[in-house]
Amino acid sequence: MTLASCPECEAAGRAAKQAAVRDGLPSHELILPTIHCSSCIRAVETLLNARDDIAWARVNLSRKRVAISAVSDVDPAPWIGALAGIGFEAHEARGAGKVAQDDGLVLRLGIAGFAMMNVMLLSVAVWSGASDTTREFLHWIAATIALPATLFCAQPFFVSAWGALRGARLNMDVPISLAIVLATGLSLYETMAGGGQTYFDAALSLTFFLLGGRVLETRMRRAARSAATDLAALEPNRVIRLDGDARTNCRVDDICAGDTLWLAAGSRVPVDGVLLAPEAQVDRSALSGESDAISVHAGDTLTAGEVMLSGPVTLRTTVDASGSTLRRLVQLAEIAEGARSRYTSLATKAAGIYAPLVHGLALAAFLGWYFATGDLYLALTIAIATLIITCPCALGLAVPAVSTVATGRLFRMGVLVKSETALERLAEVDTVVFDKTGTLSDSALVPDDDMPAQARSVLKALAEMSNHPLSRSVLDALEDIAPAQVDGISEHKGAGIKGVWQGLPVALGDAAWVGSGTGTVLQLGDRVFLLRRKERPLPEAAATLRALHETGLNIHMLTGDTRANADRMAATLDVDHVHAGVNPDMKQALIHDLQVAGSKVLMVGDGLNDTLALTQAYASIAPGTALEASQNAADVVLLGQHLSGIPAVLHIARSARRRILENFGLAALYNMIAIPLALAGFATPLMAALAMSTSSITVTLNALRTRAPS
Amino acid sequence: MNILVILVPSSLILGLGALAAFVWTLRHGQYDDLEGDAARILLDDDDTDPQEED
User: In this predicted model, which residue has the larger pLDDT, A78 or A331?
Assistant: First the structure.
């Protein structure tokens, strides 16, 4: 503690902060997508904790978030600004403080581990020759530990198995639960009867290994899901509302019909409304796929999801936030997502074969031994030993172990797998359908070819001063140009940037704000240059398509854009099958037709017009720049616009599928040795323990072989 | 046999102690940010973190 070295005032401030800490939960949560090391943690925490309006801030590096307890309920915008100042991108998270807990599962794992180790110790004593009273004593202690531990720890399996049985289905948890219950029951009977063979350790280690698999799987999936939610939260959820002359920064959710909103150039229309400004240009690509800017006039309707290209403008909302087109599409996608659960996973298929087979064998063993010897107890013991020894452990771990490894590897590459069966479906894909606008291409402002070099360097100097997406896109076209010396630069929020160059006033921004015309212009004294929006392929698009083509996949491109624009892009990217001018329903129908023809289609799209197609396709991927509705509809979300993740996803998915099938093979191999022994009545608790541990370890090690392409 | 009466309970008590410690760490959220904790050991001043102070 540094209290002694602190000046009094600082100590007092700290005491106040500590009081707030005790008050408990964080009031705000910010997403920090770029933090990755200890110095990031220190920089963020030092900055935030030094502020007077923050009681405490603590970074969670695993979730890439910072939890903040504010002194009062305040707008986090200044914190986000301050973080941007030291180079950290930050966004406000929705629903701060609500953290999904998997502590119950971890607690069960801990208890199962404790019980397993103790019972195993006692069992080793029995196996190494304890007899008579000593053996009975050890069995009773084992029973005292194992009974409550099994009942508590194996609950997740019992619940899931019961659910499946009630729905007249079979899942992997049915044979697992049966093995646990029968092993414990038989052992209890043996203990009471003073018999020689108890399987308490087998029941507990089965529970422990399977819980371990389940904990890892839920953790990994939750990390990917929460990252995907964070990504969706990057959509600004605050807007500026005009109440008379006053400006209020309010949440999108709080907007009502009839509000007047102020929108800067480059921002997305949050709620459907009518344009109040005389004229504006919008980018409608998210809704229709058109890449060209569209001019709208006062009184025209603006739909949520469109992007303002000129501004600032005002609009009057016509619906509440909950009724906006954007929100309705999000809900639509959620409904559609539920409908896709018709896919039967490999694990379920395996359980469908394994469970009846093993249960049938056990029954046959029981009947066979009963009729052969007439000894009911012996027949029952052998039947139960068969059930215990057939390695439900290897089968139970076969899928979770592989999917944990694969999802984890993809997560580190910036690919978020949201759906449980996504990897299995991706492995079978043979056709990839891309949306054009926003997925393979984006639009940038480019200076005309006849713009003089001096003007270009002024343009670069002005554009460099702003973080606005439109300015950033200008810079991409000016990479090899040195910026001019421009003084007195000032940014006018939502309108443009002004400065002085060699005594001349210069400006970059909205034409109406600069003086005349429409669109985005560069002003140089009294000369005005228009910057045109031009569509260009994303940097990784060509390489990605080539890589996919080389692995033998059919590639299609769908777009709502005009035939001319579509053909130009197809020629640049070398795509064979192009479908232009298709509306959302036609996109869905096209994918349906491909599927009827026998293809397994992967849809990659970002626009609202792609949501239907994304849910129709066998598997779907959305780039991180996609709107929330499209991200919700997709199985997999890529961070950023890194299309190169797509070949990697498909590669890992195929590798994962091979590993799962191999694991099933390994489990079958163990059973081919174990079942005859068990049926012949030679199975012992020691054999069961050996088979269980060896098979679990083999299956897990094999899962680790799931590799990313080198 | 007699020695077991002492050894078995004492091994169980030790085990239960470890289990109790595990449950305590779990309740106090020590597994919430494993990556962050790994990175934090590299920070020299723990003072920046007021949550540690209570």
Answer: A78
